[in-house]
Amino acid sequence: MNHKIYPLAYKLSPKQTCTLYYLGFPASWKAALLNIARKTNPKFKDEYGLPTNALKKLVDSWMEGIIALAPLKKDSHDERWLTSCYEYSEKNIQALCSIIKTWVKATYITPSRVNPLAKKIAKEFCDTMNWEELAVVRSTDEVCLTLEDGTVCEAAYQAIPLLAINRLLGKEISLSGQTLHLCYAAKNQLVSDPIADMKSHHQYSFVFDLSVRTTPPKRKALLLCQMSIRRWIPDNYNKERTPFLTNAVNSHIKISEDKYCQVPIGYGYTAKQPVWKEQDKECYNIWGYEQLPSAEAVVRNPAAYAEKILLPYKNGMAGFVASKSELVCPLLTRRHCTGQCLLCSEI
User: How large is the average pLDDT for residues 63-71?
Assistant: First the structure.
């Protein structure tokens, strides 16, 4: 029996500071959206605010460095609606404005049961939205993330993993004679470029999820790095027949040397074939990336697109070649990899 304990979390250096960037939400936009929400739902209550959970998911997925998105209510103070550890560029604010439009359309325009008057007002609102209004209220604040007693401020739980991810992008670490090139995959998540299994030649990647956790009883904070393996679909059994997707698949699309973005593919019951999730597809297009092929073509022949688009494999996926790998990842190996990551991050 091995009695050694191999930690996968590391202490944070005290007195680390970070500049946080805040963006305010325009008062005229909030008033218009509250009006639309009331006309959409006669039972709408001001104290609950706008349904921004879906917006938060889109912003987290398609804007880098986001720490917090505050609720929008009738009496809320919105000068610091959006918090980021990266400075807002003009391009980012323009993209954010378009993401907000995408959310408004999905919430108040495209649903079939939306009140016609609310839909009309929502369309007019989207037509008049100007990104420059969103750029008016901006501020910054210097925040101490890690304190001398080992605890952290509230913002640190989101900021520290984001800062660590940013420092690790493009770095290379070694594992059993192989070199892993680290790429952005999602908020607080890195993925290595694909590696081919020596026997099956099927591809897989290592995934690193970073988070800040506290330990009782003094709530001292640690940077946790959880490591896992993500296998990729090797191919389709029958090129003449598209596999039926019982659950959505988060495709990983290579958009630069150090970055993947994720756009879900699900079965479209209207189109009767696999389709890109509409909101995420719109957000992908906002950034001006290379045009996506049809989702049906990617699912029908994954191997043909594997250089740019990877589909995660799960056991039992019907219609696809089963991903096989001889890879094992013992705890000591995980400790070695996560240790290299955390040392490179310099947090």
Answer: 95
Distance CA(226)–CA(210), nearest Å, equals 6
Using the predicted structure, report yes or no on whether residue 120 has a pLDDT greater than 50: yes
70: nearest Cα among 23, 29, 28: 23
Global pTM exceeds 0.85? yes
Mean pLDDT on 172-198 = 89
* Closest listed residue to residue 323, CA positions, set 237, 226, 207, 209: 237
Q: Which residues of 126-155 are buried (b: 16+ CB within 10 A; e: fewer)?
A: beebebebbbebbeeeebebbbeebebeeb
SS3 at position 172: strand
Tell me which residue of 159, 137, 132, 143 sits closest to 23, measured CA to CA: 137
Report, as an integer, the average pLDDT of 254-281. Answer: 95
Residue 336 in tokens? 């070695």
In contact, 155 and 83? CB cutoff 8 Å: yes
**DSSP, res 176:** T
Q: What is the DSSP string of 210-264?
A: EEEEEETTTTEEEEEEEEEEEEB---BS-TTSPPP-SS-EEEEEEEETTEEEEEE
- Does residue 7 have a cis bond before it (omega within 30 degrees)? no
Q: Report the DSSP beta bridge partners of residue 139.
A: 22
